[in-house]
């Protein structure tokens, strides 16, 4: 009997699975892609009106929450809206997870270690002190106020590092928590929405408050730039605030902000290690009392996308990439983050968020006071 050539062999299960998986993700991916294009255009229109203080990531999350509320994704409904929500959910979930991590990796190409070292050891000390004290203080305040653990962790990361991008990176860690249980993805989307809202509100207030306070305190341009770069959450907010002081303050604030972003990797990696250790100590009670208690599944201590972020920082620091490539990577990073934030927003439970927002709002206010106060104290003590 003649043997059929390899090309005539029937397709295996994995081959048949790929088109099926692609078709399952396609509606959600298409929705996220269209929304990203619209939102990027809208953010360019709104930028002159807001002074560039509103991040397109936050705008994307709000738009996603509106779409999710209309579709009623997390609310039992019938009819066309429910069917459409069910069709787009796999694709938006994939976008919120995979595209988000790709954006964090590319974010590393915006950071150069030599630029950060140019701040000098005093400037770096200001950054490290502000980030460390703010992160620890916000977590402690979260426990005191009985704010959910995930919400406090996201707020602490956003306020201490770099706003929406830092919240996004920490979201990738919390998604891997095996102890979340039923409903954990929906709760996490609400936590992300709360953290991003707080970053936007208090960062916008800082644009007005910090330049005025720097002038009243008689800070030099260098001191004002360090303070603003170490205290304000979003890069766009840092630029808007420091730009009203002077060009020298803007240059210092921008580099200081980049130094904070460099600390994103060790902070997220540390959170991943802590999560992995806690998960290893978690046990699952067996249904049969005679069975052995089985430890929870371990997660890798350092997420792969964090290692990718560090690799991107190292590549950028070598100086081998031309400016055109770096500019293109920056644009792609924004596109990926906007798509991921929109996808996360589609699952936000707006009524639940409104009911539970009082304590996170107080935590955000206290966090703003902490990061501003610690940054100012560090500048006055360390920088002449």
TrEMBL record:
Name listed for the protein in its UniProt record: Sulfate exporter family transporter
* Positions of transmembrane segments: 25-47, 53-73, 94-113, 119-141, 153-174, 194-219, 304-322, 328-348, 360-383
Give the superkingdom in one word: Bacteria
Report the locations given in the UniProt record: Cell membrane
- Keyword Ubl conjugation: yes or no? no
- The yes or no answer to whether the keyword Transmembrane helix is present is yes
The record's listing under Pfam families reads: Cons_hypoth698 (PF03601)
* Homology family: Belongs to the UPF0324 family.
Q: Where is this region: Disordered?
A: 1-22
The topology of this chain with respect to the membrane is:
Multi-pass membrane protein
Kindly state which keywords UniProt assigns to this record, in alphabetical order: Cell membrane, Membrane, Transmembrane, Transmembrane helix
């Amino acid at each position: 009997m003649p043997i059929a050539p390899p090309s005539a062999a029937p397709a295996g299960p994995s081959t048949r699975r790929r088109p099926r998986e692609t078709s399952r993700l396609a509606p959600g991916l298409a929705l996220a892609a269209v929304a990203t294009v619209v939102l990027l255009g809208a953010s360019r229109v709104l930028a002159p009106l807001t002074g560039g203080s509103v991040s397109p990531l936050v705008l994307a999350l709000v738009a996603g929450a509106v779409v999710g509320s209309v579709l009623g994704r997390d609310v039992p409904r019938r009819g066309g809206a429910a069917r459409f929500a069910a069709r787009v959910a796999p694709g938006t979930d994939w976008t919120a997870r995979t595209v988000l991590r790709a954006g964090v990796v590319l974010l590393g190409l915006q950071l150069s270690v030599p630029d950060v070292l140019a701040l000098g050891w005093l400037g770096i000390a200001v950054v490290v002190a502000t980030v460390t004290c703010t992160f620890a203080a916000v977590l402690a305040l979260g426990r005191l106020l009985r704010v959910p653990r995930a919400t406090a962790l996201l707020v602490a990361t956003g306020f201490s590092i770099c706003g929406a991008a830092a919240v996004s990176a920490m979201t990738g860690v919390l998604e891997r928590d095996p102890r979340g249980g039923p409903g954990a993805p929906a709760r996490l989307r609400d936590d992300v929405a709360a953290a991003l809202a707080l970053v936007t509100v208090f960062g916008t207030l800082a644009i007005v408050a910090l330049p005025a306070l720097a002038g009243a305190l008689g800070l030099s341009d260098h001191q004002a730039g360090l303070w603003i770069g170490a205290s304000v959450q979003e890069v766009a907010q840092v630029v808007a605030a420091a730009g009203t002081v002077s060009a020298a303050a803007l240059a210092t604030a921008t580099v200081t902000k980049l130094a904070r972003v460099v600390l994103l990797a060790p902070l997220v990696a540390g959170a991943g290690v802590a999560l992995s250790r806690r998960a290893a100590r978690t046990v699952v009670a067996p249904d049969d009392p005679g069975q052995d208690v089985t430890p929870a599944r371990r997660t890798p201590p350092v997420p792969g996308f964090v290692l990718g972020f560090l690799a991107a920082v190292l590549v950028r620091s070598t100086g081998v990439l031309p400016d055109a490539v770096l500019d293109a990577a920056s644009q792609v990073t924004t596109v990926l983050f906007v798509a991921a934030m929109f996808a996360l927003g589609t699952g936000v439970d707006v009524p639940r968020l409104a009911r539970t927002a009082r304590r996170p709002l107080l935590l955000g206010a206290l966090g703003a006071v902490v990061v501003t106060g610690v940054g100012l104290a560090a500048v006055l003590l360390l920088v002449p």
